[in-house]
Design goal:
Blueprint lengths: L1 E5 H7 L3 H8 L3 H5 L2 E5 L7 E5 L18 E7 H6 L1 H21 L12 H10 L10 H9 L2 E6 L5 E4 L9 E3 L5 E5 L2
Parallel strand pairs: 2-4
Antiparallel strand pairs: 1-2, 3-4, 5-6, 5-8, 7-8
The protein binds zinc ion (ZN) (2 copies).
The site of one zinc ion has 7 residues, from loops.
Length: 186
C-alpha cells in the first residue's frame, strides 16, 4: 500500500474537489486532509474507507462526531491508473462515506452497512449515482484470475473456486448436489 496524496489534491487532479467540498460543508478541511493510499492488492474492492476507533464509548450515539474518525481512503491502484472515469467515481463513492461519517456519525442513516439514506444523499450531492459498489470489468477479470480451488465436493467432485482459502475449523456442504461434504484444499 502506497501513500498517494491528500484527498483534496487527488480530487483536484480529477476535477472533482468542488462538489466534495460543497457536500462536506463545515467538514471540508478535514475531508481535504484525508490521506489517499493506492493498493496493489485490492482485487475485489475498488476502494474502501478506513476509520479510526472513535474516542469515548458513546461517541457514535451522540449525534455528529466532532473528531476526525476517518483514517484513510484506499483505492485499487490498477483501477485508478487504467479506468479514469470509473475510478473517479470510486473516489467520490469513498469520499461520500467519509463525509457522511463526519456529518452524521458512523452507523447512522440506516441500514445495510453504510449505504443507507444519509450516504445516498451525500453521494447524490457529490454527483454520483448512489450505487452500492461501482463495477469494473477489468477488476472482475483480475479477481477471477486470482481464484484457486479451495475445496472439492466428495459427492460430486465439484471444485469450489475462491480467492481465499476456506476458514479452518468449519465444515461446508455443497448444497447444489444435495449436500456433499466439501474437503478444503490448502
Ligand atoms: Zn461503499
Ligand atoms: Zn457436490
Amino acid at each position: 500500500m502506497q501513500y498517494f496524496g491528500k484527498l483534496r489534491s487527488v480530487a483536484e487532479g480529477r476535477g472533482v474537489w468542488e462538489p466534495i467540498e460543497k457536500a462536506a460543508g463545515e467538514y471540508a478541511d478535514e475531508v481535504a486532509r484525508i490521506p489517499i493510499y493506492l493498493s496493489d492488492r485490492s482485487s475485489r474492492r475498488l476502494g474502501h474507507c478506513q476509520y479510526k476507533k472513535p474516542v469515548g464509548r458513546h461517541t457514535l450515539h451522540r449525534g455528529p462526531v466532532k473528531t476526525l474518525v476517518v483514517k484513510r481512503i484506499v483505492l485499487a491502484s490498477r483501477h485508478w491508473h487504467r479506468e479514469l472515469k470509473l475510478s473517479t467515481n470510486t473516489l467520490l463513492h469513498e469520499a461520500s462515506h467519509a463525509i457522511k461519517t463526519l456529518l452524521y456519525g458512523k452507523g447512522k442513516g440506516g441500514y445495510h452497512g453504510s449505504h443507507g439514506t444519509l450516504w445516498r444523499k451525500v453521494a447524490r450531492e457529490v454527483g454520483i449515482k448512489p450505487d452500492r459498489c461501482s463495477e469494473s470489468p477489468e477488476m472482475r477479470v483480475l479477481a477471477q484470475s486470482r481464484q484457486k480451488v479451495v475445496g472439492i465436493c466428495i459427492k460430486c467432485s465439484h471444485q469450489i473456486r475462491r480467492q481465499r482459502a476456506l476458514p479452518r475449523g468449519r465444515t461446508f456442504t455443497h448444497n447444489a448436489c444435495g449436500g456433499g461434504q466439501i474437503v478444503a484444499q490448502r
